[in-house]
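I am writing to request your help with a piece of structural work I have in hand. I am sending you one protein, given as its amino acid sequence and as whole-number tokens for its backbone shapes. Kindly check, if you would, that the fold set down in the tokens agrees with what the sequence suggests. You will find the record immediately after this paragraph:
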Amino acid sequence: MAESMQAAVWHGKKDVRVETVPLPSPPAPGWVQVKVEWCGICGSDLHEYLAGPIFIPVNAPHPLTGKQGSVILGHEFTGKVVAVGDGVTDIKVGDMVAPDACQHCGECQPCREGRYNVCEKLAFTGLHNDGAFASYVNVPAELCYVLPEGVSAEAGAVMEPLATGFKAVRMAGSILGRTVVVLGAGTIGLGTIMAAKAAGAGKIIVVEMSKARIEKAKECGADVIINPKECDPVAAIKELTGGSGADVSFECIGNKMTGPLAIDVLRNTGLAIIVGIFEEPSSFNFFSLSGTDKRVMGTLAYTLDDFKGLAALMAKGAIRAENLITGKIELKDILEKGFLELINNKDQHIKILVRP
């Protein structure tokens, strides 16, 4: 095996380079090494490129991984296990896996509760530790979900973002027969739409401006599309709900305007789930909560249980991954045909996969 590989490395804001780096070392005890098959470009990768560092540690080493400064990006991936560290028994060489990206300490209160996605020392693969825009990557074995029969490597690479939407819907509790608003029809929003439909939502209203994404939202199960360029979304949603507002909303954009909007579209006592990653703070009047008994809940990522639940829905065709893939490129083209394409032509794309 060669001693080096090509990888997409973040060095700073608007500075991602495809360069030669050393191969990962043999996996540590409890870890595995994966030969990457496909890796999707995530909105968080674009956030780090355009406005970073947001999550990437630059001022001090990360408390869990020790990583600081430049990092290999990429966390939505599938690949074949090529080596296992000592003590690994559940994952074997040759397994095709879709790894959960939430590296965690296993000791803090959230970890002990099984909610390691919000570990006090959370390290995300590809942000706080080297990721999968490379030929090989090392990850904890306990985070590897072995792809079931019938789930392609391409579909598996979309499981990570789809699991985020699945978990957001799970956090909302029962939405059977309820009116749901999804703000944004990117990958996370589309996954949320499909998960909400599978959970029995009575009506799914989507707020989206992009023509291409509007069509995708319809394909994924949206009942009503509201284009905020054409009308006041709050007024339109109230008109659709007898003047009250929606039961539940999911903010899947991460914009300073759409955070408050997720609350404004609700009826009194409604629930807003904040899924998006925000680059800047929103201005917000908290009387919107104290005067209405509305509730706001944040959600980050997922756990491996969400991968399992998602896979069951994918196997039944209730959630479809392949139709979200709008491009496949080689690693050498990740900047021009990947990052910049998604930034400059975002209306034309949902998910671009990269083959290292």
